[in-house]
Amino acid sequence: MTARNRLLMCAPEFFTVRYEINPWMNVQRKPDAVAANDQWQQLVASLAPVADIVLCEQAPDAPDMVFTANAGFVFESRVVVSRFRHPERQTEEPHFARWFTDAGFTLVDWPEEVRFEGAGDCLVDRGERRLWLGHGLRSDPRAGAALQAAFDVPVHVLTLVDPRYYHLDTCFCPLADGYALYYPGAFSAESQMLIRAQIRAEKRIEVSDEDARHFACNAVGLGEHVFMNRASKPLRRTLESHGFVVHESPVGEFLRAGGAVKCLSLNLDDPIA
Ligand code: ARG
Fold this sequence. Notes:
- Helix content is 25%, strand content 22%.
- It is of the alpha/beta class.
């Protein structure tokens, strides 16, 4: 592998479940701070051999800030800073805007009223220059046109229908060479058709209910390496048969907030092949 991607991550200094904005969150079942920190450190250790980890500081009033995938969406050196649907997460916006500005990114002008949760709902295809946007639970469908205008890139808009899979990155994951890992049940019938029409059968990897529940689609793909919370034996075998190397990094404490491996990182570069 030649180029390396930079991944933005945020250590879980103030991570907890203090409100409930997705079906995985329950304020009575808070994550254990020590275990969460251990899992996060192990995730960093497993990603570090293939990516450069860049850190930002967590703000005390932003328990979900560890999910840096939602900081914004970076594409070709410019960033759209997220406009969160829930007031509970809107406190993160100025922190991330400042981080991107200080890091030298150009911020894209964005229509204020259009909710958009960054790389949680917008994913870069790995076979063609095009984007996938998820809407229905968090981001506004109008984000599709706004992204297309901002980056001059085709955007396929997918409708999410299962509240457990509220961000596109919980149920869909473009991988190197134009592969995509996905959970069909998270999408409307029309969107399932769109996925099948746009991605050839040999490149589509459907995951089971069980793998979906363990956030297998919430994976980070770096070249042939794929990092995820947990993979069933059949899923591991399927990925390996296509030439991928599967790395499991358990992040159960973060599942209590509805996030896993991919949510905990944001690619600051265009994905390597
Ligand atoms: N508790 C967070 C929320 O509901 C989890 C975000 C997970 N991030 C992701 N990219 N799916 O917003």
